[in-house]
Amino acid sequence: MPRPGFVLEVDERTPPLLVHEGEGYRLQKFPWGTRVVYPPDSLPAIRDVNAAIRHALLSPVGSEPLPELLKPGMKLTIAVDDISIPLPQMRTPDVRQRILEHVIELAASKGVEDVKIVVATALHRRMTAAEIKRMVGERVFRSFWPNDLSNFDAEDPDALTHVGTTDKGEDVEISKRAAESDLIVYVNVNLVAMDGGHKSVAVGLASYKSLKHHHNVDTMMHSLSYMDPREGRSAIYDSATRMGRLIAASGIKVFQIETTLNNDTFPSQLGFLNKREWEWSAFDQGLMMAARKGNDLAPPRVRREVFRRIEADYGLTGVNAGEVEAVHERTLANLHRQQLVEVRGQSDVLVMGIPYIGPYNVNSILNPILVHCLGLGYLFNMYRNKPLVKPGGVVIMFHPVPWEFHQIHHPSYIDFFEEVLAETTDPSTIESKFEQQYATDPWYTHLYRTSHAYHGVHPFYMWYWGAHGRDHAGDVIFVGGDAKAVARLGYRRAGTFGDALEMAKDTVGPSPSITYFHAPPLMIADVK
Amino acid sequence: MVENAAPVPVPGDPPKSTIVESLSGKHVLITGVTGFLGQVVFERLLRDCPDTPIVLLVRGQQSQTGRARVEYLLRKPAFDPLRELLGEIALLRALDDRVTVVEGDFSKDVPRLPPGLDVVFHCAATVSFASPIDEGFQTNLYGAMNLYEGVVRSSSRPHLVHVSTAYVAGVQKGVIPEATLDHRVDWRLEAELALGARRDVETQSRRPELLDSFMEKAEKEHSRAGPTTVADDAEERRRGWVSKRLTEYGRARARSLGWPDVYTFTKAMGERAVEELAAEHGLPLSIVRPSIIESALLHPAPGWIDGFKMADPIIRAYGLGQIPEFPGIPEGIVDIIPVDFVVNAMLAVAVSPPDPGSPGYFHVSSGDRNPLQYFELYEYVREYFEAHPLPERGRGEHKVPEWKFPGNLKVERLIRRAEKLTDLAEQVVTHLPKSKAMRDAVARVDRDKSRVDFVKRYSDLYGAYTEAEVIYTDDRMLALWESLPVKDRATFPFDSAAVDWKYYLQDVHCPAVTESLRELSKRRAKPAVKIVERAEPVVAVFDMEGTIITSNVVESYVWAKFADLEPEGWPAELVSVFGRIPSYLQADRRDRGEFLRTFFRRYEGCSVEGLQRLIDQHVTEFMLQKASQASIRRVREHRAAGHRTILLTAAAEPFIQPLAPLFDLVIGAQLQVRDGRYTGFMSAPPLVGEARSAWLRRWAAAEGVDLRHSYAYADSHSDLPLLRAVGNPVVVSPDSALYRYARRRRWPIEEWSMSKGMPRVRFPRPATR
Questions:
Q1: What pLDDT is attached to residue B328?
Q2: Is B29 in the same domain as B125?
């Protein structure tokens, strides 16, 4: 039985603790009394994945078995999550490949000929052919690429359809092909509690017109937290649910497949990253020292390449299929089993190490806006009930925040950073003054559709994503961040952790309580 | 060179009444009123002699009348105290009531002057030490002759107060008295030959050998920009050569006759001519010879100065720590005199005219009775800067060097060595590849070079002045001073013995000439691009390679070619292209068009469809990866401002497609196609160098676009004609030649590059094909 997550109190016997900081990590001494939140140990993986998938497809929840839904002459659309999950990328074969192979085999055996696979990118960048091939596997790629396997295009007016409007006035506009299909099979990887459920079709296959109803500052400020999809907790999830129910009510049939992973986030050669420091063996320690030394010596380009190539040995902890809400309930239970950690009370200071990767920089660069989003948007929100830090408390993050951007993937981010953030960092002002212009800019749209660029509006969403964390915290300090880039984000910078704690005292007084959120591997702090 | 060195009695009757009384009701003509000396003479008369009618002889300038120039003059700092005293309206009324402005250029013709003049102050002169010989004579000799001719024709018989310089005495050392110059130079012959020299030199400059050498140099620098640019530059070089040659004529002729430079030489010739003219027409003549005129001690305000005079550029550069050593004999005397002393002396001279036929000579100088040694001057100035160092932006203060006076030979050697070093550095930096570091290095070398040039120029020019072991006696001046009523001595002081040099230099002069260096905030801002919306159509033209994308024809070819080859084929192609890179580069340096013709041969046999496939799959990503985000942002800004945008490039059109949506018009090289394959030839000559500007002009005329408000962006010197065709040229990450050109013209310079952290462009992955 794997151990649950737990909270350590730092005392004189606690060794320096590992803290992620971009393409590197450090060992950091913490003051006595600091609470350190550790994720639960990795759950055991399902041994026979194929059997589990088959079982899920044949005995789904709240739905007929998949074979019964498949008929000759029907239109079948299979949607898959894109490269933004899981993180890091999964060692091949990707779980999506396995599920796709099963679904396609079933469809073929049932005589279904009109099958299209679409990568549910929404406003994310188009995946490259190589990336898709890696995800779906050689067989599927060879049979379907490029005519029957493609990226979703949320800016192709001919390929969208307006399904309707929710009772809250939200437009639902999704992929026409999907909407007109007799069945949509959606293949999910549920890395965090926010993924999946109604968010799959209603978000993954939707256009800007639809997305702007929940991807906005007001919704984000009322989503406490994004990781808690229970009704009334997360405005964004509630909105997605309204849209999903509208889609179901309009007669669009969705067969949802959701998968959950264990916490084997790092491969065995970096196994120490999955463990607690005092449990490191001599081998782990040697490995850690060597990896750190090598990393420090490597030129930045090499370091980035090394990190880019990390693949996780994720094990599958569950696969469920069937009706969206019923499936998602099971998925959440699985996720909580792996990720939930009980924490008592909030603290004055929250410390987080920002790792090298987030959902939007796979094979790319974690630019300053993405650093903001990963820290205050994602990690900060990994809680239930209330944040780990008190309102007005201080968030201290470790990351070098280099002034670097990927020109092909993030062109509108560069302009957002140079033009918008140079003028204001206030999410509401940014939304009202600039969003429309970026969202409808023909050049960004051109790049989104023909190159591999995120949609023009995407940096705005990244900024809104961190809006709640930004608003909740009294001060945000980056340890070791590029001074200019951090200032542009509207945060403060400290040279060392000691300096950052001194700076924090301006806000929270001379002897603050401190919590270090020791992630990744990911977890959800259930703050009582 | 000077007759009888014995003291001479003051000519004319000693004035019994004060200067103001004597000038009352007298009609006074002033020339050179817009100059340093003339301004103060005018101001003084306007202020202190209310009953003296003034006639100003002013040259009109293009659009400005003489009167307008005088009104403009009254707003200058010299008139500040007076304007405060009288008020704006009363000052303008005084101008209406008492001043007659006569327009005329007397360096060319005899001016028409009003009758009844009583005193003429001739202050106009060219004070350039190194002007072409004909210009020196024109202003300093013929100018004075024309003026006095005009006076005579106006049937006036005024007292001529002719301003000369103490240095007309030439290179001789020792004691120089106030007397006529002793020389037997035939001024008529010299003047006539000097004027004729221009024709000779113009003729010489057209000799084929010389023209060829101008062309050769022009081609070396501008051949890539095209033949018109080369021709323009060659002609500019020829004109420069003529001017330099005539300056050499002047310097050489002056030195061969015993004067240090053309200024003192022509002034000396002028004195003799004026003496003869005055004698012929029976006019009283006084020649006033000031030494080095510097800022005012008292009037119109302590420290007042107009522009920078002889010593000031050196004082300023010294204060900035830029002059480590300067030639000169430390014990030598630097003869300085404040400007107000000169003006006061002129007024005193004016009211005591000599007898016609025996001119009066006056030195307004300090060397005789109150000598300031070169070493003292240096000490005072150094003390001043040590107590009040000049601020240096971001780095505290400038430290001034200590001079050791090692002797002129050593200083000259130092200068020569510095010159050699900067020349060498220049050779190195201009051959560095295009980069930000290269441009910084060029800027540094240019700065060092201008410093060395500065020291060299000034030490050449002023050598004679800083090492002059010569004393100009001022006995006559002193006698005149002593004859003045006490009241005048208080109002119009000019006794040089009364100047406290330490006070004058440290509390009056140095603060005045360094004031502008202390206002760091007023430093000129870097030129910046202003994108303005306009009613009339405006265009923004962008060069592509090197400007928008950091890549060139060779690179994009190699890239596309590789994409088409199986990996096994790479090494051979690598060798083939890279082996020829030197010849490509050579061709590129010689002539862009020729290079492109050579290069596009490589596309021979390539299928149109195949190339299109490559572009869709690989080139798009390549181009977007190589394009700087700042450039794309700029294109979009222009579009947002309603400007039309054009991409002009030498690259083949298919390769430009990825960037095409940004532009209203894309002009690239069109490759000839036969049977679905490229022939390796272009279907039209490539648009490079001058062809670009010619194309743009024709296009703009056809489209009704206003090029004066339009923009052009380019990185290479070969795009100079294009940049010059528009009103808002912008250079982007330029090569060294264009960088220098842009800095001189104060064109905006942008540094555009790929985003930091971008991965290297890799060869295409076969997986994607």
A1: 78
A2: yes
Give backbone dihedrals phi and psi of A146, rounded to 5 degrees, phi first.
Answer: -100, -5
A/B interface, count of CB pairs below 8 Å:
63
For residue B529, name the pLDDT band (cuts at 50, 70, 90). Answer: confident
Residues B561 and B514 in one domain: no
pLDDT of residue B16: 60
Distances (CA, A) of A106 to A113, A114, A115, A333: 11, 13, 12, 28
Distance from CA of B306 to the nearest CA of A (A): 44
Chain A contact set for B636 (CB, 8 A): 443
Tell me, yes or no, whether B231 and B88 share the same domain: yes
Query: Quick check: B663 pLDDT over 90?
Result: yes
Which residues of chain A make contact with B623, given a CB cutoff of 8 A?
none
Mean pLDDT in residue range B146-171: 91
In a domain, B1, yes or no: no
Check whether B15 has a pLDDT greater than 60: no
Up-side HSE of residue A291: CA atoms within 13 Å toward CB? 20
Q: At what angle do helices B408-430 and B436-466 cross, to 10 degrees?
A: 160
The complex scores an ipTM of 0.85
Is it true that domain A6-40+340-527 has CATH number 3.90.226.30? yes
pLDDT range class, residue B657, cuts 50, 70, 90: confident
**CA A115, CA B228: separation in Å to the nearest integer?**
65
B529 located within any domain: no
The verdict on A452 touching B (C-beta cutoff 8 Å) is: yes
Structural domain that includes position B564: 539-768
Answer yes or no: do A404 and B757 touch at CB < 8 A: yes
CATH code, domain with B42: 3.40.50.720
Q: How many domains does chain B have?
A: 2
B336 domain residue, yes or no: yes
**Which of left, alpha, beta for B440 (phi over 0: left; psi -120 to 50: alpha)?**
alpha
For residues B572 and B478, membership in a common domain is answered with no
Is B507 in the same domain as B544?
A: no
Whether residue B293 lies inside any domain: the answer is yes
Beta carbons of B647 and B542 less than 8 angstroms apart: yes
CA distance to partner chain B, nearest, from residue A115 (Å) = 22
Q: Which residues of A touch B634 (CB under 8 A)?
A: none
pLDDT per residue as tens digits for the range A309-333? 899 999 999 999 999 999 999 999 9
The tokens describing A365, both together, are 């660069």
Q: Do B767 and A130 touch (CB under 8 A)?
A: yes
Q: What is the pLDDT of residues B212-236, one digit of tens each?
A: 999 999 888 777 777 888 898 899 9
* H helix or E strand, kind and range, residue A349: strand A347-353
Q: Do both B739 and B701 map to the same domain?
A: yes
Of A297-306, B35-44, B380-389, the least confident: A297-306
**Ranges of each domain in chain A:** 6-40+340-527, 63-261, 268-309
- When CB atoms are compared, the residue of A402, A418, A443 closest to B661 is A443
Question: Which pTM was predicted?
Answer: 0.76
Give the other-Cβ count within 10 Å of B613's Cβ.
Answer: 14
CATH number of A63-261: 3.40.50.11440
| Range list of β-strands (E), B325-414 | 336-338, 360-364, 391-392, 396-397
Per-residue pLDDT, B333: 85
Q: Do A447 and B636 touch (CB under 8 A)?
A: no
